[in-house]
Amino acid sequence: MFRQGSLASKSFARSFGAQRRLASTKTIREALEEVIPVKQAQLKQLKAEHGQAVLGDVKVEQVLGGMRGLKAMLWDASVLDPLEGIRFHGKSIPECQKTLPAAPGGKEIIAESMLWLLLTGKVPTEAEVRQLSAQLAEKGELPAHIEKLIDSLPKDLHPMTQLGMGVAALNQESVFAAAYEKGIKKTEYWTYALEDSINLIARLPALAARIFRNVYNPGAAIPGINKELDLVGNYVNMLGYGGNHDLTEYLRLYISIHGDHEGGNASAHTAHLVGSTLADPYLAYSAALYALAGPLHGLANQEVLRWQLNMRKELGDNITHEHIKEFLWKTLKSGQVVPGYGHGVLRNPDPRFMALQEFCDTRPELLADPVIQLVKKTYDVAPGVLTEHGKTKNPYPNVDAASGCVLYHYGLTQFKYYTVIFGVSRALGCVTQLVWARALGLPLERPKSLSIDAIEKLIKS
Ligand code: CMX
Q: N vs C: which end of the chain shows fewer Cβ within 10 Å?
């Protein structure tokens, strides 16, 4: 894909520290250079031979109902089956847990392994993952102007608002935007999108940790990036929880399996839409973060904990299944949703919820925690209550039903911050799609909208 000496290849050699490359280990760019032409050819053939094939009908209820089930987006990295849950390039979460490299001394998937799988469709070797960790660590420091911007924000500005602002402002150094301004070929877009994407992911932990420090521990020192550590290892250190091995492992797992959930979810779709205008990855991901900040999407993990803690406050420590049932009905009768339950696509318990439950099941101290016990007890009764209530199409827990409670146990009790961690995670899937959208030359997204009158007219005709 690269011509020797082209602007793009020089830029990569410079910013990816080519001299640090381990012998016989592929870089992420080299791995992508192998797979991109194959996919490009596949797409070209699909367009040429089947461009007019019909994939399904569009029902009025879909247009009025948030486009549920509408097959209208290309997204290769993950597929969400309503019953089985998510697969990343065909691999279920348990399969990923078996095959993707962990951190030295750890067992859980690390973000670098998941990013590699999402981007290339291949399981990386341990050496490839370590090399990617080193690249990310090398790029992990925040530019001074971003530190200044974040430090200037009011401490009571929601951490998600701050994260989106910091990510958008990182676009000052976008190589994609700079190259586009100079004039580059469409075939080179993806290389710049990749460089921005890697830089963005590298900087997210320092950005997210600075927001945490400013809001919750003003004045505390933030440790520098440790070049020997993986992305999440560094993130946990910078949050001030370095040395907590179990929390680090939990966040490695959470950030990896939360990284992508097909293309149609609000954050991924937003990144894709904004990216389709050729806005650079920083701007596209910043927009995605504000979709994630809605309570029906990423903010649900903070809402679950608030809801669980209210339940404890109201009912005390010895909560029975009957008490929980009453509390669920009270929530529903007051017109609120039960946070952490239901899903736009899933029709079974979320395998991400199950993976986090299994993490708890192997640790007696987690099993003994009253808030985690409450999550389990709620899972025993909530599907029945929600089924009886009769509204939600999916009465089962989604990942958010469990995620915040484990953080709470480990002392990360600032639940307004939880969606920021989700934001660090979801970048893995969103940047993957941005790189591939540019590699495949996907166009500006522009669906057709209809007025109510126009829909009625179409039905009559
Ligand atoms: N509690 C109460 N009512 C619920 C419900 C829940 N957990 N989940 C869905 N419903 C209701 C809906 O509000 C809707 O009611 P109306 O007909 O009055 O509008 C009805 O059931 C049908 O909804 P649905 O088709 O089953 O679900 P949607 O695809 O419209 O919405 C979701 C999906 C996730 C927004 C919804 O289930 C919800 O609000 N859950 C609680 C919030 C949550 O946990 N969000 C996190 C999702 C995971 C993520 O994206 O990060």
A: C
Q: Compute the distance from residue 342 Cα to the ligand 1 centre, in Å.
A: 5
Count of the separate structural domains present in the chain: 2
Active-site residue flag, 261: no
One domain, residues 284 and 425: yes
Does any domain span residue 244?
yes
C-alpha 152 to ligand 1 mean position (Å):
37
Q: Domain containing 278: what range? A: 135-297+414-439
> Which ligand 1 atom lies nearest to the CA of residue 266?
50
Q: Which are the contacts of 4, defined by CB distance < 8 A and separation ≥ 6?
A: none
Contact 179, 188 (CB under 8 A): yes
Catalytic residue selected from 196, 230, 280, 400: 400
Nearest atom in ligand 1 to 340's CA = 44
Does the residue 158 lie in any domain? Answer: yes
* Best residue among 391, 419, 422 to mutate for probing ligand 1, ranked by most atoms within 8 Å of CB: 391
**CB-count exposure of residue 254 (10 Å: 0-12, 13-18, 19+):** buried
Provide the pLDDT for residue 201.
98
Whichever domain contains 167, its CATH number is 1.10.580.10
Q: 8-39: per-residue pLDDT in tens?
A: 444 444 444 443 555 568 999 999 999 999 99
Residues 292 and 306 in one domain: no
- Tracing tokens 């900087």 back to the chain, one arrives at 203
Question: From the CA of 392, how far away is ligand 1's center (Å)?
Answer: 6
**pLDDT tens-digit map of 87-136:** 999 999 999 999 999 999 999 999 999 999 999 999 999 999 999 999 99
Please answer whether residues 118 and 432 qualify as being in contact, where contact means their C-beta atoms are separated by less than 8 angstroms: yes
What per-residue confidence (pLDDT) applies to 317? 82
Mean pLDDT across the stretch 213-232?
97
Cite the beta strand spans of 54-107 per DSSP E. Answer: 78-81, 85-88
Let me know whether 344 and 392 are in one domain: yes
